[in-house]
Structures are given as C-alpha cells and as structure tokens.
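Bug #77: duplicate submission created two jobs. Keeping one. Sequence:
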Amino acid sequence: MSTEEIKADNRGRRIWRIMLAACLIIIAAAVIKRFMKPEDPIVTVPLSSVSTEAPERTDIELETSMVGTLMPASVYYVMPKTSGEIREIYVSQGDTVNEGDPICRIDNEDQVEAARIQRDTARIAVDTAKTSLDRMSALLQTGDVSRQTYEQAKTAYDQACAQLDAAQLSYDSQSELSVVTAPVSGTVESESMELNAMAAPSSQLCVISGEGARKVQFSVPDRLLSAVEAGVPVHMERQGTEYEGTITSVDLMPNTQTGLFGVEASIEGAENIAVGSGIKVYFVSERAEDALTVPTDAVTYDGGLTYVYTVTYDGDSGESLSEEAMISEQNKLATVHKTAVETGLSDGERTEIISGIEDDAEVIVSWTAQLYEGAQVQVLPKEG
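Kept job's structure:
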C-alpha cells in the first residue's frame, strides 16, 4: 500500500470515529433528558353521581278505557191499548212532552160501539133480574116461594149487576183509549206513526226517554268480565269534564255479531248531555295489592331481559376508591350491579317487581352513562 493510500485510510477511520461519538452523545442526552423529566401529576376526576331509593310497597291499579254511549236511564215504548185507524198525530221525533200529553188519536168507533151494546145489554139484564128479585121478595113474604128460590133470584141479580159494571168499564175505557197519552214527561226519541195507518196493541207508536237521569252503555270482551261486575265504580270523561258512576248491569250472553258483552253504568251530573253522545269510560281492569314497586324509569331492558341497577356501598362490596377518582364529602362510595328482575303490573309511574330484588335493595333511580356492572359511583344523600 502506498503512502497516499495509508493516509486516506486513516482519514476515513477518524471520520467514522467522530460520527460514532456524535451518535453516542445524542443518545446519551436523550436518555438523560427522559430520566431527568418530572412525572406528570395524577389528575383526579369526580365519580358519576346517582340517586337511589328503596322499593316501595303499594297498590297498583291498571285502568282500561272503553267508549260508551249516553242513554236515558228510563225508556218507555208507547203502544195503544186498542185497535183502530190513526186519525191524528200530535208529536214528532225530538219533541218534549209532559205526562198525560196526547200522542195520537185512534178511530176505535167499532170497539166503542161494541162496548156500548154490551153495556146496554147488561143494563137490560139488570132490570130483568131486579124485577124478578122484587117479585120473589113479595112471594117470600106471603110464603108462596121458598127461601132457596128467593136466594137464587138475588144471586142472579148480583151477577147481572157485576156484568153491568164490567160492561160500563169496558165502554169507558174504549172511549178514553181513542186518545193515546204520554206515560211520562220526557223527549220523543223516535216516532213510527202514519196517518190513516192501522194501530194495534202490539204496534209501537213512539219511544219516550224520561227526563233527567242518564245511563251509559258500553261493551267489553270476555277477558274483562271479572272487572265490570255490578257495583264496581267507574269514572268517565267527555270534552274535558269528569263524571262518576257505577256499573249497574252486565249482559250474561255476548252480542251475536260482535262477541262482546253489553254493560250499563249509572252516571251523575250528565242530565244536560244529549242522548246518543259518546263518552269515555274508565275502570280498573287489573290490580296488585301491597306490591313491591320501583319507579318505572328505573327499569331497563337488554337482550329481551329486564333489569334494574342496584348499588352496594364500599363497606359491603370490598371495593376501594381508585386513585384517579374522588367523591364529595357528603356522598357515599358505591358499586353498581346490573340486577335482572321479573316485572308485573305497571301504571306508568311505578312498576311491580315480582322477583329479583328485596325490600331492602338500593335501586338507582337517576341516569348516568357510567351504569354498568362493577362501576364505581357516588350516591347522593336522600332527600329528607
């Protein structure tokens, strides 16, 4: 190797050593800086706050509503007591009538004439029997007839008088029955009379609803029959006004077309509401007495199951407060448990708990994103 080559080789080695030393210095400075840097301070954050309450023993009632129809409490079907041709009509649908007001006039002259003939015949029979009785009485005094014969004449006379009374009553009735009158005061709900049409005791002339009291008619399916027995109280609502009432009757057989059972209820203070108006009827369809309940908002659902979140306090759970967490002085550290429960009735505000928790459970009734099994929370003091 020549002298020049040796010099070049020595220069390369020096440069390499310098670069290596520089790298070592840089690495050493970085390591020293890391070890000399102070640690970041621990930042504490407050735990999520929750409110809890114990389950409450109370009665839960589930209401069902049906649409009913307001009807008159008393309905009268007006029918004539005699046959004949309708000659005059005095009322129409919607009219208000008083008891005794005329409804229509029926031409029953044939019946009146027949009753008159029967009455006159009975009068003749009485006169004849009276003459015979007077004669028998005189003969009895002279001893020309026996007491038995006299008694027979007297019996015949008494019977003739009774027949005359009946005939007279029939004649008076036929005379009066030509004018059909309203049996009660009220409103003519329907009217089915036509001039010159024939009327008979089996034909309906009109329907009159009595004044004042009203009733409500509605229908229920068979599953609700046990909730609508006679005497059960109900409350009703129409256009913002509340009414009270009581179930008075329930049909024993369902309607053949709807399959529903008819129900009637009394109603108080509805005299001024028009007949036929709709009204909403509310009644208790299910009831749970002395049930273990929690607020409905405390119940959650996950994967087809029902849960409530409960807590155990630090002393009970064995958990300790993590280094990064903090709680306010008046609050209590607790651990969250996701507890499966079986629910029953719910009235919207409270829900019945059939199983899963006991009366002494502490149920979370407020919401926070940190609700999961094992989460630490701080429980706010209970009001009061």
